[in-house]
Amino acid sequence: MTYEMRMKDIREESLAEGEAKQKLRVAKLMLAKGCYSLQEISELTKLSIKDIEKLEKEMHATEQS
Predict the structure, then answer these.
(1) pLDDT above 70 coverage of the chain, percent
(2) Per-residue pLDDT averaged across 16-41, rounded?
(3) Rounded to a whole number, what is the distance in angstroms from the first to the last CA of the chain?
(4) What pTM does this model have?
(5) How far apart are CA 42 and CA 30, in angstroms?
(6) Are 30 and 44 in contact (CB under 8 A)?
(7) Which letter does DSSP use for residue 2 in this model?
């Protein structure tokens, strides 16, 4: 693999990671607001219902700590 190809791969990975973090941040805000269903959050963030449920459990766990 050439240096240029590797650098392109690194940039693409960084962008994908940034997009994933942004989706999680938005989902957390929507869950905290409390007026969106899991289905709506999934549709708007493109995260799976399972991932959103996991995020919701993590949020509740940190609230109780």
Answers:
(1) 98
(2) 96
(3) 47
(4) 0.79
(5) 10
(6) yes
(7) -
